[in-house]
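Kindly inspect this one:
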Amino acid sequence: MPGRYCVTRLTKKLFGQRIFEKMMKMTFYGQFVAGEDHNAIKPLIRKNRAFGVGAVLDYSVEEDLTQEEAEKKEMDSCVSEAERESPDADQREKKYKAHRQFGDRRGGVISARTYFYADEAKCDTQMETFLNCIKASGGASADGFSAIKMTALGRPQFLLQFSEVLVKWRRFFNFLAAQQGKSEMMLLEQKLELDELKESLAKMGLGAKDDIGNWFSGEKLGLSGAIDLLDWNSLINNTTKISNLLMVPNLKTGQLEPLLKTFTAEEESQMKRMLQRVDILANHAVEHGVRLMVDAEQTYFQPAISRLTLEMQRKFNREKPIIFNTYQCYLKEAYDNVTMDIELSRREGWYFGAKLVRGAYMYQERDRAKEIGYEDPINPDYEATNRMYHKCLEYVLEEIDNSRKANVMVASHNEDTVKFTLEKMNEMGLSPTENKVYFGQLLGMCDQISFPLGQAGFPVYKYVPYGPVNEVIPYLSRRAQENRGFMKGSQRERSLLWRELKRRLLSGQVVYRPSY
């Protein structure tokens, strides 16, 4: 990304730091960023709150790295010692390995901030930043959200490896379902007959039939005489030695094998510390009465991110929704993921929390899949993504209607999606005062959606980036490349603003007082 920040650097050089910062605050920074720290953002949060609009706080500082620096950091942090010593010794899948040409994860990404691993001390610093953000959110309002990113909290090598394990275990279940003639069924309708499953696994050499039976001897596993994918997923659980999680079935040899032959003591420790940081943040959110949104990331990290978020939900969402997972509806598997997680929440009795987005990594994901050689995970076109979004949303709304234990944030700038949600809520008799369905837009965008919703009593939130001017420039410079959809939205917003200004002048109501 050569020259990405040339204009801002030249402006700073010409005018000096102080004038540069004033210019930014009067223009681009002032439009999309709330302020430099948690004290500076309070006036904007109070003003929005007066119009019924809440905040999802998001500390948007990024390192100003060159492409070469970003690629080096990514390769250093995603390749294990074992892989460096014997690059071809382990049968890793291409999708879940680091590739230098896609090492700079900022490429083709506009609105999502990006973290690159430096060391454990840097992860601790970023955790402290998130803790301060949670505290600021709790102090700003009684119903706030705070956003975190998993890649800020540890070495991404673990996310890559754990994602590959989860995908391979799911694929193994699909293989066994096909053996029992059930591959054409809907995902959650695929139930493996327990006796037949034991026979299959024993024939593959994964253990004696009686030993395999012990795998399914948990409190609820196998009581019905059948195992579905949720039961199967529960076989992968927390153990003292984190690397024990990274065992995968080898369909050729019929054996369970480690994904990597060896883990160093430091790699084992890094994996544990990442999980500890996540746990600290969740506990802090509970303590301050703040709901925690875990952002979605690239598909080669996402299975691990979703599973870790799910584990937090199982622990912290017992009495109310605290932890929210993010589902990217441009993914072909989005509906399966939503339905699976809702079913698990039903069985275990906890509150399901979701943020639905279309997705931030489409161009990068498509290019990587094509270049490296695996199936494109993205829906074929924008309309397919819209259909997927509405399908997932309708399923969650139906769950809210049935149980009142699900919660969803409709994070969208699409007016048709907002109208679709309002119509469905009206059909189902879901009142906005129940606070089960929230709406979310980015600060500085689509105010013509956010503020009328807030004034009408719907729970609506702005994603509020904040941070020092110089340190959010990398994030803002990508926001400047926002797509044509935003430009259309801004033209519509200008038209609506002009119409409102004329209305006020003609009616004599120049100053508007919010009724909230």
Notes: Residues 1-5, 483-487 have pLDDT under 50 and may be disordered. The longest helix spans residues 156-179.
